[in-house]
Design a protein that fits this description.
Oligomer: single chain
Mean pLDDT: 86
Number of helices: 2
Number of strands: 3
Strand order of the largest sheet: 1-3-2
Number of domains: 1
Order of helices and strands: HHEEE
Shape: globular
Helix content: 10-25%
Radius of gyration: 14 Å
Low-confidence stretches: none
Distance between the termini: 23 Å
């Protein structure tokens, strides 16, 4: 896995786009390496999984929700720092 500091160093002035699961997103959030986060939340929960925001103080890290768009299949959220 590429760490937040490594990703920033390689990208220079370009954007860094990450892909991965909950643990990857949490690591980048806690490192302050995500400026804009787009989420598509589906109303269906299948089994158990990792909690994306458990124990993370998003407002304390400077994040706020800038957009929420509900659709028939999902709710689209944008968080920005």
């Amino acid at each position: 896995m590429v760490l937040p500091d490594q990703a920033k160093a390689v990208a220079g002035d370009l954007d860094v786009k990450i892909g991965g699961g909950v643990s990857t997103i949490r690591r980048y959030l806690l490192a302050g390496a995500i400026d804009e986060l787009h989420l598509a939340l589906s109303p269906v929960v299948l089994g158990r999984g990792e909690s994306l925001f458990a124990g993370i103080d998003l407002p304390g890290l400077g994040y706020r929700m800038t957009e929420a768009v509900p659709t028939e299949l999902a709710t689209h959220l944008v968080l920005m720092r």
